[in-house]
Design a protein that fits this description.
binds iron/sulfur cluster; 3-stranded parallel β-sheet; mainly alpha; Tyrosyl-Transfer RNA Synthetase; single chain; elongated; two-stranded parallel sheet; 6% strand; binds tryptophan; 3 domains; Rossmann fold; 400 residues; 18 helices
Amino acid sequence: MFIERVLSGMRPTGNLHLGHYHGVLKNWVQMQSQYECLFFVADWHALTTHYDTPHIIEQNVWDMVVDWLAAGVDPARTTLFIQSRVPEHAELHLLLSMITPLGWLERVPTYKDQQEKLSEKDLSTYGFLGYPLLQSADILIYRATQVPVGEDQVPHVEFTREIARRFNHIYGREPGFEEKAGAAVKKLGSKKSRLYSELRLRYQEQGDNDALQSAQSLLNEQQSLSHGDRERLFGYLEGSGKMILSEPRAMLTASSKMPGLDGQKMSKSYNNTISLREDEASVSKKIRTMPTDPARIRRSDPGDPGKCPVWPLHQVYSGEDTKQWVIKGCKSAGIGCIECKQPVIDAVLEEQRPMRERAQLYLDDPALVRNIIADGCEKARKLAAETMRDVREAMGLSYT
Ligand code: TRP
Ligand code: SF4
């Protein structure tokens, strides 16, 4: 059984490029062998900012899933789904909205930042203000323990933790909690209940976080506990109420240093990208026509890699020997720029080859992708339904 559950989402923004690959997807691929992973297409999130261009979403959704698969995200090991196919996200979003102070949303840094950045759009909408809460619902509905995100999204995970805490505080109090928790401790069996009590005391009296973690993994290993007792025991460790929603941790993805074709960071808005599955001729052409050190007007003029946008690409793609060859050859005018670019072209093509091959499989048979997503949505809905059952019950909505 996995103790950690990783969840992350991506907006369907169109063709992914090598910046996404080096910044995010490689990381997803690495995590899929270590954790239970759920990755989803955040199509509702796209509507929070692009509500006036809905027609672009559909194609982007499928293209993006193919990009994920091309990058090596393995549908046999991960759950891939689309947010809007799991309507429970919307229900949790609505229910959480009841307890979300407006001030908390207004203070999320991306709120003002994005409004300023996307000033051509009218983003004084209810949906845009509530978008971090929708993200919280995405995370909390799967009881995710880890959320890989870039730096800009860390405040959203922090916000999610606060919402979970507030929810547990308001709805986690049940009559007779102490007694019920005590009874649940006994059900662990004498040895484990003693260990649990010791660890709980060590955490509560000395703030010993290791003790807290040990107690949590002890609980995670108990297969036979009922869900209610499990929640009680988790809640009892940290406070005096049931823990219905669990607080996730942000897993900071090192911000992508992937350089674009002009030396700036690779980004769609700078128009300096190479897409993940771009065809070979186009990749070669883009790199061959990249600007170089402006001092090298003629082949015989020496240059300085430090002033050349090709150099950061060598740092991503080239080994030590090649890099030495570039430095020496550039500074002495021993090599030409086209010659210098060739190893980068070769390395990018080499990196993309398996991606193009994997993608071809799915392009030839789009039903494969549809099936992967249908399976993923079904799995996701099952998990989401479990959480919603507890949430409805806690909020007094499970009438019989
Ligand atoms: N808000 C994220 C972004 O814009 C995407 C996202 C939506 C997400 N829900 C999420 C990321 C849940 C992690 C977890 O990039
Ligand atoms: Fe840039 Fe290479 Fe040309 Fe030097 S030789 S200017 S590093 S492309």
